[in-house]
Amino acid sequence: MQICSVSVEGFRCLANITNVPVLPQTVLTGQNEGGKSALLDALNFLLHGTALSERDLTYVSDGVVQEPVHSEDAVAPHARVPQTTVMGDFTLNANEQQHFALPERVQIRRRFRPEAGAFLEIRRRVCRIPELRDLEAVKLAGLKELAATHGVEPVGQLNARNSWEQPLRELAQRMEQVDAWVAADSEVAAAMPSMVYFKGDSVQAPEAVVQSLLNSRLREYTRADEVAKRVADLEGYLAESLTPDIDSIRGHIAQRCALPSVELDPQVQVRPALVGVELNIVDSQGRRFPLSSAGTGRSRRISLALWESSNDLGQDQAQEGPASDVVFVYDEPDTHLDYSHQRRIMALIQLQSSRPNARVIVATHSLNLIDGVDISSVVHLRTHEGQVRAEVLSEDSADIDVRRHLSTIATTLGFRNSVLLHERFFVAVEGVSETSAFPILFRKHAGYPIQSAGICLWAGGSNEGALRFAKFLKEHGRDVAFVVDKDSRANQKHVFRDAKLKEHGFDPTEECFYLGSPNELEDLFTDGDWADTANALWKPNTERGAWQPAEIEALRSGKFSSQLLGLFKAGSDDGPQNKEDLMVGIAAHLGKDRIPAALSAIFNSLIDRAQNAGPHLW
Fold first, then answer.
1. pLDDT tens digits, one per residue of 371-416
2. Which pTM was predicted?
3. Which of 120-124, 390-394, 538-542, 614-618 has the lowest mean pLDDT?
4. Dist CA 603 CA 399 (whole Å)
5. For 598, left (φ over 0), alpha (ψ -120 to 50), or beta?
6. Which of 530, 508, 522, 520 minimizes the C-alpha distance to 589?
7. Strand runs labelled E in 253-386
8. How far apart are the first and last CA of the chain?
9. How far is 325 from 47, CA to CA, in rounded Å?
């Protein structure tokens, strides 16, 4: 059984967050105190039933989520959400579907209420009448009462439980079926994936890492048929051992309360667990001492080695037989690690996520880790109006093909994951000439880099996918604009012509800035600017004199940029080789006072737009 997504309600800062994908490789990003660790702890509660307390409930005030009050003496001024609910969508393999009589995809949830504790439930087709659903939990006397109520006759000995339960079960199957949440039995709970949890603070405590690894393996051994039978026998033995104590309690109650009979049926459960690990180091001279006194540097290296060993344990398990499903969780594993060690973690994540039975989730602030995975694997948690929400690069999170296509476009256009997640304003230009020259000219104009203004510049070229991606960004809360040559407006071959922009939902008069006097960016610079730049950077051949403004002016009747490039390329041994060289040359050579006024005006407009842009939710 493998988990595909998780939803959380009423857990710490996660008031209501739905359908967070759990992929073979998932990276959680977001601000500090933004819910990353809370989401991982919620997943641990769902899969392992870790203990919760009233402090883990979400507190709200005037519709705004508040952190729980942790002081024992403090009085919470906020209303408390009555319960925590963590629900997962799971897929079952063919054997599990047959064994549990369940479809391929099911929902399982674990709820916690302070007055009732935690309980695991599964949504499945059951009888419409609630009292006929969980017959195995009903006592013999209760089965007889149900049989009398529904006119069911026993099929065997009157004192045999199955004589009453079997006809009642057949009745329930014949009656109307509905989808409902019912208690999940121990077999379903055992089939859920195990979770190996590596917390960031475990870098300082390798013992905790060892304990997490061995506990995971201990759960795997407990699931084996032979071990499960031994555990069941032990539970039966312990329950039987309580018989004299139960009889004493029953008799006391019956006597004190004047009752004819009291039933008391103990439910004994044995769950092996590793309660602690002692880790010692032996030095080269044979001296033995606890790891805690070995220094933090060595502890960090040992923790990383332990994380890597988790994959070896999984491989050993796979060789022994069918591998159980597992979720590897890393909470800020890059803490205190240099780049080379972060690269080792990235390699480990890639290796573990390649296993068909594994999921890997990493919560991190590291741009190296964020940019090291496919953008479709990134889940960004953002606090908006007091509530945590999840952003995923997807037009439809259920459509994996759409996710992959958008990811491919983002990669082709040169977007890093961190840029897509955090930049506020995306500006598309025609090609590499603009993306190379604009940052130089912008810095001279504004006095600071274009990135500092919150502007992400990208070259769309003639790529139809660029417009599709721009449309996607706009539809999901990102501000987008275009800066293109004027001659593109009516050029039928150009991807940024007005008709094409309108087709993709953009208003050319409001979201597009046009350059050229009259046609293109190169037109904006004067004949003198071009002549001065050429004389400084592209010395003319010896057989001719210095470049003159008049010969530049003569080129403006045709395709100016192409003729300009041809002139300098042919007339100088050091001439520009392409239009990118041409534009970078003049951008680097000119001073701030010679930047064309039309271009300065566009830069000012972009700055204003960026200041009022996002960040927005996807």
1. 777 777 888 887 776 778 887 765 444 445 445 545 555 555 566 6
2. 0.63
3. 614-618
4. 38
5. alpha
6. 530
7. 280-282, 288-290, 326-331, 358-363, 378-384
8. 31
9. 11
